[in-house]
């Protein structure tokens, strides 16, 4: 589903050059649940952003579901992200002025989807994460674990084949964290390919494969 070849990412300012990723060669197969670990600042989030087409490599090649994407223009990249990829962030990124249901609908606003279908798909996604009784609530009325469930529902509402999760349990206690991991495992069992950045070794051990980074280089 995702293939990186000789990927490098360099951040440059007028006086400093920082090598964030160095010669990454990585393939994630359809249906895998892969975790990415490493110390802070080692390039985990940069790697996830490149895999999710939110950032461009300084050099190297990226394939998503067999398609080389380096030549894609912004509009085509945005369409591919919207159709193929779902994103889950540590900080939830919910809009406080919108209800839970409206938050989950957001990715569908960029598709040719009727209001009725958006509502049906959003309700279905919330049912999958066990929040069908919170659809009319607002983010400020939810616990951290419930907010992350909403974020997962938003990520899966468009039925993406790939889910990219950046520290999805990082702001949660162990009980809530295990509940979120169980939801991700269920989504994976249903066919989603999942790549998860985590600092939690016990979480990583419950995925299919572990990728370790150190100073921007893949060491495992």
Task: Write a brief caption for the model.
33% of the residues lie in helices and 27% in strands.
Can you tell me the residue ranges where pLDDT is under 50 for at least 5 consecutive residues? none
Radius of gyration: 17 Å
**CATH class identity:** Alpha Beta
Shape: globular
Per DSSP, the total helix count is: 7
- Determine the fraction of residues in helical runs and give it as a percent range: 25-40%
Oligomeric assembly: single chain
CATH superfamily: P-loop containing nucleotide triphosphate hydrolases
Largest sheet properties: 6 strands, mixed
Supply the number of structural domains: 1
Topology diagram in text:
Elements: E1 2-12, E2 17-28, E3 33-37, H1 44-51, E4 59-64, E5 67-68, H2 74-84, E6 85-89, H3 100-105, H4 115-128, H5 144-156, E7 162-166, H6 174-189, E8 193-197, H7 201-204, E9 209-214, E10 217-218
Helix pairs in contact: 4-5, 5-6
Describe the structure.
The chain has 220 residues and is α/β, with parallel strands linked by helices. The protein has one domain: P-loop containing nucleotide triphosphate hydrolases (Rossmann fold, 3-Layer(aba) Sandwich). It contains 7 helices and 10 strands. The protein has a 6-stranded mixed β-sheet with strand order 6-7-8-3-9-10, with helices on both faces. The chain has a 4-stranded antiparallel β-sheet with strand order 2-1-4-5, covered by helices on one side. It is globular. The mean pLDDT is 93.
